[in-house]
Each structure stands twice: as C-alpha cells, then as structure tokens.
Write a structure and sequence with these properties.
alpha/beta; 38% helix; 11% strand
Length: 393
C-alpha cells in the first residue's frame, strides 16, 4: 500500500509544478513604477552631432525693423496663454526669445487670458520687446464648461484621477485650458487674419541664436507643425482618447492621410504598458508648450469634425485629455508626416526636459541632455520612435 501513496504524492507534486510553470509563463507582466525604472541602453542623442540650420533658402533679418511697413514678415504671431500672476515668468520667457530670435524679426506678441490683463502685466511685457503687443480676453463661451458636461460626474472623475496621481486633474481651470488649446484658441477674433503662431509659455528657456525667420521657413517649405520635444503621456489620463478616435476614424475613413504616422501613434514595443493602458495608443505626443504651427490645419473641416467629436465625448473633463495628445493624434492621422518638422536647432527647456543642440550658437544648456531630473525621466523620451517611423526632418 506504500507504493500507491508515493505515486499519489508524486502525481500531486507534478500537478503543482505544472501549475507553477503555467503561472510563470502566463502571469501578467508587472507594470514598472517610476521609482523602479532602470533605464534601458539610451538612444544616442542626435543632438550630440553638430547641428546646422535647416537646408534651403532662409530669410535673414535684413529688413525686419518694427516700424518698416514693407518688412517681409508674414501673418504670424508669438502666442501666450498666461495669467496676470505669471507676469514675471512670462517676462523671463520673453527675454530669452527676444534675445535669441525675435529682436531680429519683431513679430508681434499676442497674449490671452480668461480675465482682463492688468496694467502692470502690460507695462512689464511691453518693456521686453520693440514689437507690437496685443492683450486679448477669451470669450466666456470659449472658456466655460460646456452645457453637456455633468458637474457631479466631473467632480467624481477628478477625484479618481487625483487618487491616481494625475497632475492638475482636480483643477477645472486646467481642463478648460486643455480644451481651449485643443480646439478654440484659433477661433478667437484677434487671430482671424493670422495663419502661423509660435506658442510660448511662462518660465521656459531658449538657448540658441536663431538667425532666420522660422515662420517663413514653415511657409516656404510647406510645413504644418514644428516641435522640439516628443514625450509619452500618462496613460491613466487618456484611457478613452484612442477608442474615441477610432470611432471617429471609422465614421470618416476618408480623413486618414496616406502618409500618416500611425506606427508612431500605435507603437507597443518600447512602452507596452502605455499602449495597454491607453487602449492601443502609444501615448507619444509633441510637447505642445512649444509648437510652431499653421492654424489652417486646425481650421480645416477634418480637424473641426475631430475636435467636435472629442468635445462631445466629454474626455476633456471626465478624463484629462490634453491639447498635446489631441494635436499629436490629429497630426499623426490626418496630416502628411513629412510636413511635421523637428526644430533641432532651437535650444529649449520646459522643466524638466530639454532640446539642446550641439552648436556654437547655443549656450546655457548641456549638449544632448534630455532631462536634468531623475534618471527614470529619460524613459519618457519618445523621439526615438518618431525618428524610427518618420525621420529627423
């Protein structure tokens, strides 16, 4: 009778071992936490290579004086959404950009606020430039929460997002700002006759002398959008953005551009946990605190229909859809990818990330440095995917 007991024991052990191996094979991969991240072998930053100006004819600062009515400036502006309380940080940003670029070309500054600008704000900002300055109030209908948003549901959603450490999730003004930047800023009457803009935020830095008219470069080379930094987003903040996008695309397949950047938008190899949590979206996006863009794209019927679809879905309030992923998905799907330009020669910082070229025209930043923060932040760089699927133009 001893033998059958031994056989039963061995059979039981075999079953347990089998279940253990099955578990080891099929258990879900743990999602890495930020503090647990050990960076993979980093991409060699192309900014380490000597950086030059873009190829082709460039407009130099020969006849751009602010009082020259025949100056070759095109219909473009430097654009900032800013509070009165941020005036000193705004002045810091202006000082950098005027020193490195705009003092040569004198493009106007257009400031937007959901409240009237103070005289102090106007005086301090006007003192930083010889160019024209315009101070605009955002219409209430562009800023206020739309009527179809349920306030109780918004508050519940904001609490849930805050519990997941989603930054600014509980600030309604942040949600309003994201919505305005996504689909309403270019509808302001003050921009009716303006085509191009360079977005500038308070407390950013510019490090490199830029000696050509970037707006003319965009126009002459038929570029729609220019960026410096390309990041991953927090997938918990946008779980339904991609599913809603797919609904829209299913209804409007004709809007997809044949030379799109779909592979960049849907890559699941480099950050698979992001793709899973964002339901098929890599979360890669152009960091839109810096963007030089052609508003004709935002004003197109394609983008208007896309924004209205997203707006009605409610994710600007029930989640934390930002203008960066919204703009980026639209560009990645509906625009020719060759019309998106990496301004590698423009040195830029928005804490904690940099674009720092290797150029004698740059000073004040470390060549090739992506971040001066914690090491795990290097994993947030999505430029390698853009370079892989689209290129470095």
């Amino acid at each position: 009778m001893a033998a059958p007991k031994v056989m039963r024991l061995l059979a039981t052990l075999s079953c347990l071992l089998f279940l253990y191996f099955v578990y080891q094979i099929y258990q879900p991969a743990p999602i890495a936490k930020e503090n647990d991240f050990k960076p993979d072998e980093p991409m060699r930053d192309p900014n380490l290579d000597l950086t030059f100006e873009p190829e082709g004819p460039l407009w130099r600062a020969d006849d751009y004086s602010p009082d020259n009515p025949s100056a070759p400036r095109i219909n473009a502006t430097l654009l900032a959404l800013v509070r009165n309380s941020e005036v000193h940080d705004m002045v810091s940003s202006m000082r950098d950009l005027e020193r490195t670029w705009n003092s040569k070309f004198n493009y106007p500054w257009t400031f937007f606020n959901d409240e009237e600008f103070t005289e102090e704000f106007k005086q301090l900002t006007k003192a930083e430039t010889k160019a024209e300055c315009y101070y605009e109030l955002i219409p209430k209908e562009h800023w206020e929460t739309p009527s179809w948003i349920n306030e109780e549901l918004f508050q519940e959603s904001a609490t849930m997002l805050k519990e997941q450490d989603i930054q600014y999730a509980n600030l309604k003004s942040y949600h309003q700002m994201c919505r305005w930047n996504s689909g309403l800023f270019y509808k302001h009457p003050a921009l009716a006759n303006t085509r191009y803009y360079w977005r500038v935020e308070p407390k950013v830095h510019f490090f490199c002398d830029v000696d050509y008219d970037v707006f003319r470069y965009m126009e002459d080379n038929n570029k729609t959008y220019g960026f410096t930094i390309n990041l991953y987003d927090a997938p918990q903040s946008i779980p339904t953005l991609w599913p809603e996008t797919l609904k829209f695309v299913a209804a409007h397949p004709e809007y997809i551009h044949e030379n799109n950047a779909m592979s960049w938008l849907t890559d699941k190899n480099r950050r698979p946990e992001h793709n899973i949590q964002a339901n098929g979206y890599s979360t890669c996006h152009f960091w839109s605190n810096f963007e030089i863009a052609d508003m004709d794209f935002w004003r197109s019927q394609t983008y208007e229909d896309y924004f209205n679809h997203l707006d009605r879905a409610g994710g600007f309030f029930y989640e934390r859809w930002g203008d960066a992923p919204v703009h980026s998905i639209a560009l990645g799907l509906f625009e020719d990818a060759s019309k998106v330009h990496w301004f590698r020669d423009i040195g830029y910082q928005h804490i904690p990330y940099f674009n720092c070229p290797n150029s004698p025209k740059c000073k004040g930043c470390v060549t090739g440095r992506f971040t001066d923060g914690e090491a795990w932040l290097n994993k947030e760089d999505c430029r390698p995917n853009w370079f892989k699927y689209v290129g470095m133009d």
